[in-house]
Specification:
By secondary structure, the chain is of the alpha+beta class. It is built from six helices and 17 strands. Bound molecules: fe (ii) ion.
């Protein structure tokens, strides 16, 4: 069956059908997939049923694997792949829903991952959508004055922002050694492949903005988030069994939804690809 590509919304998302990621992919198809990813920011490959080692193999069409920070979620049989599950609990017994609240993955790294890939293993009957906000479209929608304001501003990214409403699982001791205490990234970054500018913020990781006090920085971050998460910039992914979804952390925020029956298991494999220093 020939591969077909179809847009999933006006600005974000491309659906891929007729592709079997357990089989070798020729260079023409690889190039078309990479181009679609750069231009559409979310790639949804339907009808895949991949074991962890096959996911690992398949994602190398797009780049090199990034070592994820919190090793407690690593699969023992394939540690470069982590799992996302609704069945984990905090030490105090509360359920942990990974990915709730708008964010971009691992922005507290010097070179944050360019992409994150999830492959659905078990899904609830309904709900559990992943929302994406297109931060390049949101940047284009800013006033000229705001674009000018962002130019040159650096945000301070840490593992867990003290301003975040969402609590992350603590890092194990072994991971703390290789995860930076804080890094600075531009608040408007340029996509290395498309050249488009995007707002680069992360409510769970940003501790502050260099040169601004919190009274100025926090409302500014709130305003940017409110602007960027308007529905006109959003693509909302409804998961289907067999989906493999790859998104671009350089120009999107994303958010999970814990809005389904928690007696049902939601379990996905997660893997990330190396990125470059944001500029
Ligand atoms: Fe995430």
């Amino acid at each position: 069956m020939a591969m077909t590509l179809a847009p999933l919304s006006e600005h974000t998302g491309m659906e891929v059908r007729g592709l079997d990621l357990t089989q070798p992919v020729d260079s023409g198809v690889q190039e078309a997939l990479n181009r679609a990813f750069s231009e559409r920011s979310v790639l949804v490959v339907r009808n895949q049923h991949l074991a962890p080692h096959q996911v690992l193999q398949a994602v190398q069409l797009f780049g090199e694997v990034f070592p994820q920070h919190n090793t407690r979620f690593a699969l023992p049989e394939c540690p470069q792949i982590h799992y996302i599950s609704n069945q984990d609990k905090f030490p105090d017994g509360r359920r942990y829903i990974p990915g709730e609240g708008w964010h971009t993955d691992h922005s507290n790294d010097v070179r944050p991952p360019k992409a994150t890939i999830l492959h659905a293993v078990r899904l609830p009957d309904q709900g559990g959508d992943t929302q994406y906000a297109n931060m390049a479209a949101a940047y284009d929608g800013l006033s000229a004055a705001m674009k000018q304001r962002l130019a040159g501003l650096l945000a301070i990214h840490v593992y867990q922002s003290s301003h975040s409403a969402r609590q992350l699982m603590n890092l194990p001791e072994s991971a703390r050694e290789r995860v930076p205490n804080a890094v600075l990234h531009p608040m408007a970054r340029t996509h290395p492949e498309t050249g488009r500018k995007a707002i680069y913020i992360n409510p769970i990781r940003i501790e502050g903005i260099v040169g601004l006090d919190h009274r100025e920085a926090l409302p500014m971050l709130d305003d940017l988030l409110a602007h960027a998460t308007q529905s006109r910039f959003e693509y909302r992914h409804k998961w289907q069994p067999g989906d493999l979804v790859m998104w671009d952390n350089r120009c999107l925020l994303h958010k999970a939804n814990g809005d389904y029956d928690m007696n049902q298991t939601r379990y996905l494999y997660r893997i990330m690809l190396k990125g470059t220093v944001p500029v």
